[in-house]
Write a structure and sequence with these properties.
This protein is α+β, with helices and mostly antiparallel strands. The chain has helices at residues 9-16, 52-60, 83-96, 118-136, 139-142, 212-228, 245-251, 312-337, 380-391, 411-414, 433-444, 457-463; strands at residues 4-8, 25-33, 37-45, 102-110, 149-155, 161-166, 175-182, 189-204, 231-234, 267-273, 290-306, 350-353, 357-362, 369-374, 447-452. Belongs to the ODR-4 family.
Length: 464
């Protein structure tokens, strides 16, 4: 039995606006996958490479109409599709998707049915393979999803469509899939969580120190182990992984809505409990020589959407995926933004790094939220350009929820150098002045990375 694919009706209208009698459009299928069903929430056209300069101009001057539709937005034939360009598009779009949502495949709009032509079908399989390799290279950003990939072929002349699925990882063949457009494909359960970060990571004293990029990659790896071992509790209840999320969702339904035909979606609050690490034995404790340490402090906001019949296990995995994807996305964006490695002088024993904060937008006619990441000083207008470029969506600034995560006040962190610390009585609920600064920052900021140059190597050398 083949897969069944459910897509929102508005996406059919979108397909009808693409392609033409002698040109093609290609793009990504975005949504949520289950064992036998796929729920498509959006179709995002891939802009050709010729639009790169146009997009850069729009980023510099958002007031221009640089992203207006032209014939350059199309390709002449299937063989002209740039697989690397589509794969790169998939990478950037994946950063914007909540946990549990994936790039499910690709769509092609143009004259004829490209899946009926063997050479065209082979080209599309090659494009899917390139996407798969690109996404699989970073499990923290894109997870380890093993779902089958979809290919939707839409005839721009007859307005007929055909869908097939293929498992690229095994080199399988195309199989028929039943694609259905519906007004409402499922009831989405909304999950929201706040993840507090306050972790100290030692930077080993090595002959050849790692770059900032490598250090942050190592931190993501360590945090992934912590997050994957965390206990996820939804609405304060611990349930069996096989239980359905809708059982909890029904409890959250407002009594006033019982007689209404359509239920009002409620946001389910998620609690995240990290392992305390008490299993470590005394003999496992080691003394290591460090040249510095990196402290990661902040509060990360997670929002996910799960289909109506999802299990607690699926919901739990989606929350963890969302946290890891958001964390990896903003750290990757941050190290890409660093022009050169910092070689600070010894007296500069604190360096503050501010990765971008997360903002949210709801898809049209949907409760599913997408994300973007804004660096300090950036505003919603930057997100509007990116949404048009990557998702082919037009938003207003007022539709960007930009104040969920807040920016840090750097003075709160640099001033701690001037604060003298005192011992903490573990039997009392007290903290030192310097600890208080970090604690408050963990509440008011979106997400920051503080690199504290401890330079304790000399201390260890003197003791030896």
């Amino acid at each position: 039995m083949g897969r069944t694919v459910y897509a929102e009706e508005r996406l059919l209208d979108y397909l009808k606006t693409l392609g033409g009698p002698d040109v093609y459009s290609v793009g990504l299928i975005l949504g949520q996958s289950t064992a036998q069903k796929d729920f498509v929430v959006h179709l995002a056209r891939t802009l050709p490479a010729s639009n790169t300069d146009v997009v850069e101009e729009a980023l510099i001057n958002p007031a221009t109409n640089a992203l207006q539709d032209t014939t350059d937005n199309y390709i002449k034939s299937i063989k002209d599709i740039d697989g690397n360009l589509v794969a790169d598009h998939a990478k950037h779009v994946s950063r914007m998707l909540p946990g549990g949502m994936w790039v499910l495949g690709i769509f092609v709009v143009g004259p004829g049915d490209c899946l009926s032509d063997s050479s065209c079908a082979q080209k599309l399989r090659s494009v899917l393979s390139t996407i798969h390799k690109n996404l699989a290279s970073n499990i923290y950003l894109h997870g380890n999803s093993n779902h089958e990939n979809l290919v939707l072929s839409f005839n721009s002349i007859t307005k007929q469509y055909t869908c097939k699925s293929v498992e690229i990882s095994t080199g399988g063949i195309f199989k028929p899939a039943d694609w259905k457009f519906q007004k409402k494909i499922t009831k989405w359960h909304q999950l929201e969580a706040l993840f507090d970060l306050d972790h100290l990571f030692p930077i080993l004293d090595e002959a050849a120190p790692h770059t900032l990029k490598r250090q942050l990659q190592d931190i993501v790896k360590k945090l992934s182990e912590i997050i994957n071992s965390a206990l996820i509790v939804i609405e304060g209840e611990s349930r069996s992984p096989e239980d359905l999320i809708e059982v909890i969702g029904k409890k959250r339904k407002n009594k006033k809505d019982k007689n209404e035909d359509e239920e009002v979606d409620k946001v389910l609050q998620v609690g995240i409990y990290l392992p305390c690490g008490l299993k470590d034995k005394q003999e496992d404790v080691k003394t290591i020589s460090c040249r510095a340490s990196m402290r990661l402090v902040g509060e990360l906001v997670s929002r996910t959407s799960i289909h109506q019949k999802a299990t607690i296990e699926e919901a739990t995995n989606a929350v963890k995926q969302d946290i890891l994807r958001s964390l990896a996305s903003r750290l990757e964006l941050h190290w890409d933004s660093v022009i050169e490695e910092e070689n600070g002088s010894p007296e500069e024993n604190i360096t503050l790094h501010e990765p971008p904060r997360r903002v949210f937008m709801e898809l049209p006619q949907s409760k599913v939220t997408l994300s973007d990441y804004l660096f300090p000083g950036e505003g919603p207008q930057e997100s509007l350009v990116l949404l048009k470029e990557l998702l082919d969506l037009d938003f207003l600034e007022s539709q960007v929820e930009k104040d969920v995560e807040r920016q840090v006040d750097p003075s709160e962190f640099y001033c701690q150098n001037e604060v003298k610390t005192v011992p903490v009585d573990l039997g009392k609920e007290t903290v030192t002045n310097s600890q208080f600064v970090l604690y408050i920052a963990g509440i008011i900021i979106a997400f920051i990375v503080v690199i504290i140059g401890i330079l304790v190597h000399q201390l260890y050398s003197s003791k030896q």
